[in-house]
Design brief:
Blueprint (H helix, E strand, L loop, with lengths): L2 H8 L10 E6 L7 H12 L5 E6 L15 E3 L9 H21 L4 E5 L1 H10 L5 E5 L9 H10 L5 E4 L2 H7 L6 E3 L18 E5 L8 H14 L4 E5 L9 H13 L6 E4 L6 H6 L2 E4 L8 H8 L4 E4 L15 E4 L3 H13 L1 H18 L2 H16 L5
Parallel strand pairs: 1-2, 1-4, 2-3, 4-5, 5-6, 6-7, 8-9, 8-11, 9-10, 11-12, 12-13
Helix pairs in contact: 3-4, 4-5, 7-8, 7-11
């Protein structure tokens, strides 16, 4: 009996009983980011227990992470708000469209991603539908107006799923039930071994929050001292996932730091595993995060990590000095950590192996999916208040 069969057998009666219908609700699936990857993975990995649908607000032009057999659908609504009144209109229209979809398709549970759609789900759907807010960003990242909306809407959710223990504490005062369920990955096949290249890899949208500018400051010296190495940034370019004003600043900074030709940018891809296999070190400059999927994936592929610390996220993934280095807001210390790894191949191998072992212990799919099943089942037996 394999692990999937074992888990199914332990969830007594779930498969034999009437299958519940679950929707994972997201804004846009056309971008190949970590959130989209987790949404698609959850829809796929809950299928042994439930009929699952991934529902996007925006049209599915070229949906990322689609696999045969998955049910991807869309409300076909384009958000284009430039004022508070237009934003309210967008949220109201999407709320009505979502409500109609849920009722027509006899949906039992909706898992909404991000605080805006979690708030819409909380207020727009009937009490008979179980409503879960799935948070992917640090609690304090929301603007003041959204923090107020969230405080009024979240008491109507049946549960909030936080990626970090630290944020769980923040959600408890405004939520009926809060639990911490981390992101997860599938086990990586490390054979046959692939020759690593002299690549410092960073994956993420091209926006200020991801801190590419911080990386440039921190990596100036390591890159100049090691001319065979380069920084590769993968991600961004799609609507809403690149800030062109910020990119102008990054381009100017590269010239000021004389890093032209030492930094390469590539578009987002749903084949990011190929970059993880090629790189030798993973670097992250983010100013804020939830629980970064990229760090878990990098560890799963045996990459040592150097990351700036954030209010939440990296400290729950990286064991500093064991499988990477977690650095406070200190560009010099960040650069020194990278230089140490560049100089010491044995250290890279040792930290990479420790990271793989830790991922297998804490972040593999099967135990995390069981936590999702336990939550959905526990909500299904609760009486509607």
């Amino acid at each position: 009996m394999n692990m999937s069969e074992k888990i199914i057998s332990e969830s007594s009666g779930l498969v034999a009983a009437k299958r519940r219908r679950i929707v994972v609700f997201i804004n846009d699936m056309n971008a190949a980011g970590g959130i989209q990857r987790m949404a698609a993975n959850l829809v796929r990995d809950l299928k042994p227990w439930y009929d699952t649908i991934l529902l996007s607000v925006e049209a599915l032009r070229r949906p990322a992470f689609y696999e045969a057999g998955l049910d991807f659908r869309s409300l076909n609504y384009i958000r284009n708000a430039s004022s508070r009144s237009e934003l309210l209109r967008d949220l109201t229209v999407v709320g009505w469209k979502l409500r109609r979809f849920v009722l027509e398709n006899q949906i039992d549970t909706v898992i909404a991603i991000w605080y805006d759609w979690s708030s819409v789900v909380a207020l727009a759907l009937p009490r008979s539908v179980k409503k879960i807010g799935w948070e992917h960003i640090e609690y304090g990242e929301a603007r003041a107006s959204w923090r107020w909306i969230r405080s009024k809407a979240y008491p109507y959710l049946d549960a909030v799923v936080s990626l970090t223990q630290e944020d769980c504490l923040a959600y408890k005062p405004i939520s009926r039930r809060v639990c911490c369920i981390p992101n997860y990955v599938e086990a990586v096949d490390h054979s046959p071994a692939v020759a690593r290249e002299n690549i410092l890899l960073s994956v993420g949208h091209l926006i200020s929050r991801k801190g590419i500018d911080r990386l440039l400051w921190a990596l100036k010296q390591p890159l100049q001292e090691n001319p065979s190495w380069k920084l590769v940034v993968v991600g961004g370019g799609e609507k809403g996932h690149a800030d062109w004003g910020y990119l102008d600043w990054v381009s100017t900074l590269m010239q000021l730091l004389q890093l032209q030709g030492r930094v390469e940018f590539y578009p987002a891809t749903d084949k990011i595993n190929e970059w993880y296999r090629r790189a030798s070190i993973y670097v992250m400059g983010s100013r804020s995060e939830g629980l970064p999927m990229v760090l878990i994936e990098a560890k799963a592929h045996g990459l040592p990590i150097v990351s700036f610390d954030c209010p939440t996220g990296p400290k729950e993934i990286i064991r500093s000095g064991v499988d990477g280095f977690l650095v406070d807001n200190d560009s010099y210390a960040f650069g020194e950590s990278v230089s140490n790894l560049i100089r010491d191949a044995e250290l890279r191998d040792r930290m990479g192996a420790a990271g793989v072992e830790d991922v297998e212990r804490r972040f593999l799919m099967h135990p995390v999916i069981q936590e999702w099943v336990n939550l959905i089942e526990s909500l299904s037996v609760e009486k509607t208040v």
